[in-house]
Amino acid sequence: MNYRVGISALLAVSLLGACGNSEDTSKKEESTPKTEVSKDDGTTVVDGIKLKEPAKDEVCAFCNMKAYAKSDDMGAFTAQAVDAKGKNLFFDDAGCMLNYERKHKVTLDKFVRNYDDKSWMKLDDAIVVKGDIKTPMKYGFAYFGTKEAAESFIKEHKEAKIVKASDIDDVAHERFSKMGDMKHDEHKGHDEHEGHDEHGDHDKEHDDNSGH
Known about the structure:
Distance between the termini: 131 Å
Strand content: 15-25%
Number of strands: 10
Organism: Kurthia zopfii
Structural class: alpha+beta
Region (Disordered): 21-41, 177-212
Order of helices and strands: HEEEEEHEEEEHEH
Radius of gyration: 28 Å
Protein name: NosL
Mean pLDDT: 82
Shape: globular
Number of helices: 4
Largest sheet: 4 strands, antiparallel
Low-confidence stretches: 22-31
Strand order of the largest sheet: 5-4-6-7
């Protein structure tokens, strides 16, 4: 009798454990980003967000430079964002995407290309690598879908290393601040030049009147 009770208890524990594992697996599957490619229009859906490919003459929404197509080598660094209205915005480098948010005081759904196959993925899901990497705006960041892929790249590029996504924003913020300083200096110089001209005209008028 005790033997049967013991067997029943073991079976109950096993079943509960199996249910728990099934639930955990289900949760993992639900949390895995879903990517679908539409055969009709070539768009990609990542986590329910519809992404597009840049047009032939697409330019960066922040710096107005060329946003490269997937077929171009530099296309590996093209970034894409979707705003609150569902509009797709393209950027030649991810740093420009972050500065667009900074300039317009908005929060975007941000995506980058997987360096290996140029598929779209969320910036937050990417493994970010910093190195002596030639990118359109010289940010030097590349993005990978797995840590293994990133480490494989690093083996071939000894100076490269895995960094945080916040490191991109640090560089972007620094550049944005410098842009603001340059505009301030230009405006200040323009005002001083106008003031000098006005002062010069006033002195000239004074001299002419004195001559009379």
